[in-house]
Amino acid sequence: MSNKGNTSPALPTGGRFFTVGLVTSWYFSNIGVLLLNKYLLSNYGFKYPIFLTMCHMTACSLFSYVAIAWLRIVPMQTVRSRLQLVKIAALSLVFCGSVVSGNVSLRYLPVSFNQAVGATTPFFTAVFAYLMTVKREAWVTYVTLIPVVTGVVIASGGEPSFHMFGFIMCIGATAARALKSVLQGILLSSEGEKLNSMNLLLYMAPIAVVFLLPATLYMEDNVVGITVALAREDIKIVWYLLFNSALAYFVNLTNFLVTKHTSALTLQVLGNAKGAVAVVVSILIFKNPVSVTGMLGYTLTVIGVILYSESKKRNK
């Protein structure tokens, strides 16, 4: 989740090391949780993406409370009305759909292709913003979305490990991520309802656990018993789940801090580069086959996203 309302002036030279450290931590946590999710759900054979997401949300609930109530990283913001709580619950449901779909897709698709599809988030954001608000972008901005989509079409055709169900789940995750971003702007737009990303996570994560618990019990039969049995055979699964869940919270924390100490635009640029780094690292680790056509498609998508970011910045 990104936070768009917390920018600060450029740091003095003494603070640049701190910023570089934050960005490095953000990179490691983002790429780390992605690769560990892939390892658990695909290579390790832990085929329970809903339960894994519930572990992530449980960790986010606990760590968010510690970070805000005890460590006071940001001031505590309260929910002011029942209506605001309903709006947060709606965002939480969409957020759950995004994370679960993304985790399901990792069972079937390599990380490199997952990142290529994920890079189309600006396309879905523009579509939902056009459909749900009166806000319209300049025509040039919409034109830049053509290479974003074209690149994924090319990458899909050239992907040796293409899986239709995994692809549909990945598209669903990307669309849900964009929908949550647009909905957040609509639902929490008034001054009295605005929450920074850390406080929003504090309220969304426990609600997500409430949504995910019955879903995992119904759809992933005896997952707790199976996990306990796995732990008896190999205690490493416990450490994998604990570390993975903590890392999922750290992604949100570093995302917030990088935005606060740089800007939302800087975060977007870094995110584009992060996707490319994740692709290279995943190919080196998992050694999944890649084609020249697939890599050209992904490159075209990234170029489109960069052009889209530049166009939005110039037409503000």
The tally of beta strands, per DSSP, is 0
Largest sheet, in brief, is: none
- The percent range for helix content is over 70%
Strand content: under 5%
Mean pLDDT: 90
Estimate nothing, just give the exact number of structural domains: 1
Radius of gyration: 19 Å
Question: What is the H/E string?
Answer: HHHHHHHHHHHHH
Distance, first to last CA: 22 Å
Low-pLDDT residue spans: 1-14
Shape: globular
Number of helices: 13
- Which structural class should the secondary elements be placed in? mainly alpha
Topology of helices and strands:
Layout: H1 13-43, H2 49-70, H3 82-108, H4 111-118, H5 121-132, H6 139-143, H7 145-157, H8 164-187, H9 197-219, H10 223-233, H11 236-261, H12 264-286, H13 292-314
Helix pairs in contact: 1-3, 1-11, 1-12, 2-3, 2-9, 2-11, 3-8, 3-9, 4-12, 4-13, 5-8, 7-13, 11-12, 12-13
If you had to describe this structure to a student in words, what would you say it looks like?
By secondary structure, this protein is an all-alpha fold. It has one domain (13-314). It is built from 13 helices and no strands. Helix 3 (82-108) packs across helix 9. It is globular. The protein starts with 12 loop residues before the first helix and ends with a helix.
From the structure above, extract its key features.
316 residues; mainly alpha; 0% strand; globular
